[in-house]
Automatic annotation (TrEMBL):
<keyword id="KW-0633">Potassium transport</keyword>
<feature type="domain" description="RCK N-terminal">
    <location>
        <begin position="228"/>
        <end position="344"/>
    </location>
</feature>
<dbReference type="GO" id="GO:0005886">
    <property type="term" value="C:plasma membrane"/>
</dbReference>
<dbReference type="InterPro" id="IPR006037">
    <property type="entry name" value="RCK_C"/>
</dbReference>
<keyword id="KW-0813">Transport</keyword>
<keyword id="KW-0406">Ion transport</keyword>
<dbReference type="InterPro" id="IPR036721">
    <property type="entry name" value="RCK_C_sf"/>
</dbReference>
<protein>
    <recommendedName>
        <fullName>Trk system potassium uptake protein TrkA</fullName>
    </recommendedName>
</protein>
<feature type="domain" description="RCK N-terminal">
    <location>
        <begin position="1"/>
        <end position="121"/>
    </location>
</feature>
<feature type="domain" description="RCK C-terminal">
    <location>
        <begin position="141"/>
        <end position="223"/>
    </location>
</feature>
<keyword id="KW-0520">NAD</keyword>
<dbReference type="InterPro" id="IPR050721">
    <property type="entry name" value="Trk_Ktr_HKT_K-transport"/>
</dbReference>
<dbReference type="Pfam" id="PF02080">
    <property type="entry name" value="TrkA_C"/>
</dbReference>
<feature type="domain" description="RCK C-terminal">
    <location>
        <begin position="364"/>
        <end position="444"/>
    </location>
</feature>
<dbReference type="InterPro" id="IPR036291">
    <property type="entry name" value="NAD(P)-bd_dom_sf"/>
</dbReference>
<keyword id="KW-0630">Potassium</keyword>
<dbReference type="GO" id="GO:0015079">
    <property type="term" value="F:potassium ion transmembrane transporter activity"/>
</dbReference>
Amino acid sequence: MKIVIAGAGEVGTHLAKMLSKEDHDIVLLDDNEEKLNNLSSMLDVLTVIGSAISISDLKETSVQHADLFIAVTPYEERNIVACQLAKHLGAGKTVARIDNQEFLFPQNREYFASLGIDELIYPEHLAAKEIVTYLKQTSTRLIHEFSGGKLILFGVKIRSNNKIVGKTLRELAQGKEEFRAVAITRESETLIPHGDDMILVGDIVFFVSSPSTVPSILEKAGKKKFEVKNVMILGGSRIGMKTAMRLGEHFNVKLIEQDKARSMKVAEKANKALVIHGDGRDMDLLKTEGIDQMDAFIAVTGNSETNILSCQLAKKVGVKRTIAEVENIDYIDFAERIGIGGVINKKLLAASYIYRFTLNAEVSHVKCLTASDAEVLEFIVKKDSLVTRKAIHELSFPENATIGGYIRQDQGYIANGDTKFIEGDKVVVFTLPSALKKLSKFFK
C-alpha cells in the first residue's frame, strides 16, 4: 500500500515508524528539513520537504497514486485543506487530524465526506475518553469494550495477594469457556500464552470475557473495585480540559494549571470543575488542595517525567488510582514497572485508530496496548474468507496470534478450537507485530 503522511510531528513520526516495518511504501511530507533528515536516516521511508497545502509539493509525493493520505500536522485547518487537495489529486482514503470535537458529531460526518475527507481523528479526545474509562473501572490496568460491551478486554497486574499465582491458564479456566487469557506482559516482554503457561507475580495478564464474568476474574486476582468521586487533574492541556469536561458534574474535579491564561480558558470550558492557577509540582500546593483526599490523580502536563513523578507522589500520600500521560514511548515500560497505574499515550491511540485503514481485511477496531507489544484487532468476517472454511484448530493460525472471542448476532462468545466463523462475525484477535502480515489472509 502506498501511504503519504503529511506532518512529521509526534503522531506522524510514530505512524511512519510503525508502518515502515511492514511492506508499505511510505512518504513523509514536512517543512522541517532537519527533522526529515534525522528520520530518513532511521526509517525506511521517502521524505519530501514541503507544505501539506502546496499542490506542487503534494504532487512530489505522488499523492495521486496514494491508497491512503494522512494529514497530522499541528494545524487543523491545514489538515482539512490537505485532505481536500489530496483527494482532488487522486488519493484514495484520506484521514485528517482535528482539534474540534464538533466535527466528530455524526450529523457532520457526511459533510466532511463531501469535502473529500473520509475520516477524522482527534487524539486528545481519544485520550480523554480512555482516562474516563479507567476511572470507571478501577480494578483493572486497562479496559476496552468491543461492540458496545458484548466482549470486554481488560488487563490485571498480578500481585502476591490472589488465588491465581502459580496456576496454569488451563487450571484457571477449569474447562469453562467464560474467559480467555490472551496476552501476558512479563519483564518487558509480551507472550501470546497457551494452556500450559503459568501466571507469575508481576505479570500483567490481559483477559477477554463477557461482562458478567469480569467480577469473578477480578476477585480471583485479588482486585477490589472502589468508587471514584474526587479527582485531581494536573495540567490544563487539551487532554486535561477534555477530561474535566467529560467528567462533568458526576465527579468532584480540581484541575491545576500553571499558565494563568490557560487556566482561565479551562475554567470557562470545564465550568463544572474547580480550576486552580498554580504549579502542580509544588507538593505544598497539592497538600493544601487536598491531594490526600482524592480518589484519583491524573497527570497530563506536556512533560512525561513530571507526570510520572507526580503520580508517584500521589501514590505515596494514599491516592488509589493514578493515571499519567507518558508521550515518550521509551518511558512507558519504566512507568509500568514502578506501578504508576494507568498510562496514556495519544500517539498509540491515534496509531490504533489509523492503522486499521492499512489492512487488506475489514477491521472495525484496532487497539495498541500501552502495557505490552501486542495489538488487538476486531476483524469483520467476509463471505468465503478462510476462517469460514475450517474450525480454528485446523487453520494453522500464526503462532504469535490468538483469537480471544467473537460477536455473533449481538451476542459475545469466547472462542475455542472447534469454533468456526460465519459471515458477519466480529472476531477479536490478539497479535504480536511479527504475525500482523499473516493475519489479513485469514479474514479478507
